[in-house]
Amino acid sequence: MNVDLLAHPAEEVAPKLLGSVLTCMTQEGTVSIAITETEAYSGAADPASHAYRGRTPRNAVMFGPAGHLYVYRSHGLHWCANVVTGTDGIASGVLIRAGRVVEGEDLARKRRGERAASPRLARGPGNFCQALGITGEHNGADLLTGTSVVLSEGEPIPGELIRVGPRVGVSKAHDWQHRFYIADDPTVSAYRLSPRAKPPTGV
Question: Which end of the chain is more exposed for a tag (fewer CB within 10 A), N or C?
Fold first, then answer.
């Protein structure tokens, strides 16, 4: 993966990450997942972004440089992973929402539970990280030159198969068309409107 691809605003990078492969190598083994769903989050201009109110110890990785992994705990339960994008010093990131396991399915299933069907192994940002083995220890990992977590180019996704819609489960700026996913892919998560948000037009 070339850093030039990531050095742009999140909403430009998010659709381009579809089909890319995120690989995590641990002592248990290696799991690789092809990305099928993403969401873009900016900084001060995006009320739904963790960086909306400025830099903190928690969100510092979001401010760059591009090509690193921003990992955070959601609701105190699940790890979520973002690919940092944009210009160094300006917060920007792409949340990885779902993917298809292309290597290490047995290990991913062990982590997720034996009853999880293949399309559900990495559906949803928390499940994605659990299947891949990503935790808070990977926050700040270099995805381009690192050894534990690597982002690589996969099969390009034709433009006619890329769908765009509102972000899932956020109450602020929920109607922004910053969610990108592969049409009719069974691994993509279902749209869910936050109960604190008004339904966006057309959904």
Answer: C
Contact 118, 131 (CB under 8 A): no
For the chain, the three-class secondary structure string (H helix, E strand, C coil) is: CCHHHHCCCHHHHHHHCCCCEEEEEECCEEEEEEEEEEEEECCCCCCCCCCCCCCCCCCHHHHCCCCEEEEEEECCCEEEEEEECCCCCCCCEEEEEEEEEEECHHHHHHHHCCCCCHHHCCECHHHHHHHHCCCHHHCCCECCCCCCEEEECCCCCCHHHEEEECCCCCCCCCCCCCEEEECCCCCCCCCCCCCCCCCCCCC
β-strand partners of 98: 37, 123
- Beta carbons of 131 and 106 less than 8 angstroms apart: no
Distance of CA 22 to the CA centre of its chain: 10
Q: What separation, in Å, do the N-terminal and C-terminal C-alpha atoms of the chain show?
A: 34
Structure-block tokens of residue 191? 């749209």
pLDDT, tens digit, 9 for 90 and up, residues 167-189:
998 878 888 999 999 999 999 99
128-171 confidence digits (pLDDT tens): 999 999 999 999 999 999 889 999 999 899 999 999 999 998 87
> Is the pTM of the predicted complex or chain greater than 0.90?
yes
Contacts of 162 (CB under 8 A, 6+ apart): 15, 18, 180, 181, 182, 183
Facing residues of 140 across strands?
Answer: none
